[in-house]
Amino acid sequence: MSNAIDLKQAAAARAAELVEDGMNVGLGSGSTAYKFVSLLAERVRNGLKIVGVPTSEITRQLAIKEGITVSTLDETPSLDMTVDGADEMTRSLHLIKGGGGCLLWEKIVAVASSRNVVIADGSKLVETLGRFPLPIEVNKFGLEATRRAIINTFTKCGLNGEITVRQTEDGQVFVTDGGHLILDAALNSIPDPEKLSVQLNLVPGVVENGLFVGISTDAIIATETGLVEWSRV
């Protein structure tokens, strides 16, 4: 495993092995999760029978292209397992997600799952969350008022950092699959992610935040020396 691509492939391959016949599986978003979808599709073509529930429109299109039967949470509201990546994670399986802009759908799917497996390379593992900017999905209406309320929330939690409206590569405002905007907060350190998550979701205009606390159950981390796996007790 000589580079990040190989590491992601290794973690995704191990996660694909965990899927059993007849499962309803949440399909994550992002580069590592897409590798999982493709590897899972190989097993489907070899006879594995599963139903996949995508966490983004891109994942849905990929799954269909790869031959995976897809569903929605309305049709399949209870999932056996979700496999997804992370932008940042701790040993306690607290995560920051949303770098790709799919955090709301990812969190909805994850909470509907009995088991949540996070797959990543070792660079995503940190002692304290916050190095990666925290994505916050917000309603378009009242954006500036919402931004100010978020800043006040950070202040009350002893945090501060620059907040920017996410844009696409061509300079347009990024819009999520759910039709919302994303504010990225460069906080550097989040010592109490559980408290911050609760406080952010009390702000009118905040749809969801990228702190995944107490949701993930298992981790598969690919390092230069091999795979490391553990579960949350």
TrEMBL record:
NCBIfam families: PRK00702.1, rpiA. Coiled coil: none annotated. It comes from Hohaiivirga grylli. Catalyzes the reversible conversion of ribose-5-phosphate to ribulose 5-phosphate. GO terms for molecular function: ribose-5-phosphate isomerase activity. The active site is at residue 106. Its EC number is 5.3.1.6. Belongs to the ribose 5-phosphate isomerase family. It catalyses: aldehydo-D-ribose 5-phosphate = D-ribulose 5-phosphate. The lineage of its organism: Bacteria, Pseudomonadati, Pseudomonadota, Alphaproteobacteria, Hyphomicrobiales. Homodimer. Keywords: Isomerase. Pathway: Carbohydrate degradation; pentose phosphate pathway; D-ribose 5-phosphate from D-ribulose 5-phosphate (non-oxidative stage): step 1/1. The keyword Endoplasmic reticulum does not apply. This is Ribose-5-phosphate isomerase A. It is an enzyme of class 5 (isomerase). Substrate binds at residues 29-32, 84-87, 97-100, 124. InterPro entries: NagB/RpiA_transferase-like, Ribose5P_isomerase_typA_subgr, Ribose5P_isomerase_type_A.
